[in-house]
Protein: thiol oxidase
Amino acid sequence: MSQVLLVLNLLSLLSLSSGATSLSLGSRSILRAIDNENGGPHDYAVDLNASNFDSVIGDTPATFAVVEFFAHWCPACRNYKPHYEKVARLFNGPDAVHPGIILMSRVDCALKINTKLCDKFSVVHYPMLFWGPPAKFVAGGWEPKQEKSEIRLIDDGRTADRLINWINKQTDSSFGLDDEKFENEHLSSNVSDPVQIARAVYDVEEVTSTAFEIILEHKMIKSETRASLIKFLQLLVAHHPSRRCRRGSADVLVNFDDLCPLDMWSPSKQGDNNGEGTLGNFQICGKGVPRGYWMFCRGSKNDTRGFSCGLWVLLHSLSVRIEDGESQFAFTAICEFVHNFFVCEECRQHFYDMCSSVSSPFKTSRDFALWLWSAHNKVNERLFKEEAFLGTGDPKFPKMIWPPKQLCSSCRLSQSEKNNGIDWDQEEVLKFLTNYYGKILVSLRKDKKNLGNDRFDGFLEDLAVSANAVAVPLGAALAIAVASCAFGALACCWRSQQKSRKPRRS
Structure:
């Protein structure tokens, strides 16, 4: 008990000091660690304050958000917390039963930093719960007599049962407090719902971050694979559908020699974060990613879909964003990345064989996008037979020839079935791919408008152009040489532009 009091006193002093206006994530972790050691409940709800409220809620992949305004000294709030946590465990965290649907969060109005925030939502008693789309909470508020507000007061959620029932009514769902992870045979299929691909932007961030974690874990960055990783990073900088992944890729690219030194796996470096160096601490798609769960690519079983689905979505999204002059570079960058960094040997070899069968360079982005689509269907056809024989497929999401008729009826010609094959209208297929993996995929991000940083993005566009200009190869040897020599110039350009620009006030 004395240790607990000592920590609490220390945290109180920190919160009153000029440099700390709220409990940090680290101090929250300390409190939770003490709580868990004493057999207390785990906190699933996300603690928010005035400094992170807009950024956390604005960036959540969840469709809805619940915000509890409370005071830590309030007895009713303390008694309500176990009820709120029972519901929060269903939706929050890497072990969430129903991830990516609802963000369960809380704000402590007893902290001075949150006074204005709580006033914006007209908090007059504790606890008060609000419901609405995350974007409406960002820079928003609530008033009792406000009409047509998408932020609603939850007026019947004082127990876990009543709160989950209220949520079920709003979402037309049947969530239960006893739901367990992946026991979800009622998981809705997204095959015939093109709007669902908009949620895959989060899976594209997830797969990008996870891929780099795998690369580091397996120590795959070697002298013979560095050029392949550089090429792929340049492709991500220019065409990744997530702005913050483009931003992170640019950071890695201009600091590549520092983040990935040639001797990063040498014995002298093994004590430095298991040889991962500074790259091991780098979050390429921003804080909180990877999240530990999938949304569009979530399977009905724990071991289906996920990473491989997310990687295909990323590759298709890149293929429909490139220009004609980048098509061959994108082809080699993707082929080399899969060949050098995909850990499934059989899948890697199959993809490499398809890459090797291409006899002439791609001259247009159209040809490359259609080749990648055809390659994906060949993979699906192979895996469908294997999974059917072994019984290892996902019954909710079986491998299929893409796109199905539900998504693109015009992609198949009237005489479609021919010797167990399909006669495709490739122009219609290209239109579908461009819309599905291009416009619709990023629509959710564009709607949120929460990642704006015009000053950085202006430079990022310049960097993307520069990276493409120096990276598009005239030959393999020239590409490697130019890419290796370009880092010093890019880094100097980055640093000089940052120094010459005045700080921008938020």
Q: What stands out?
A: The beta strands are 46-48, 64-70, 102-108, 128-132, 152-153, 412-418, 421-424.
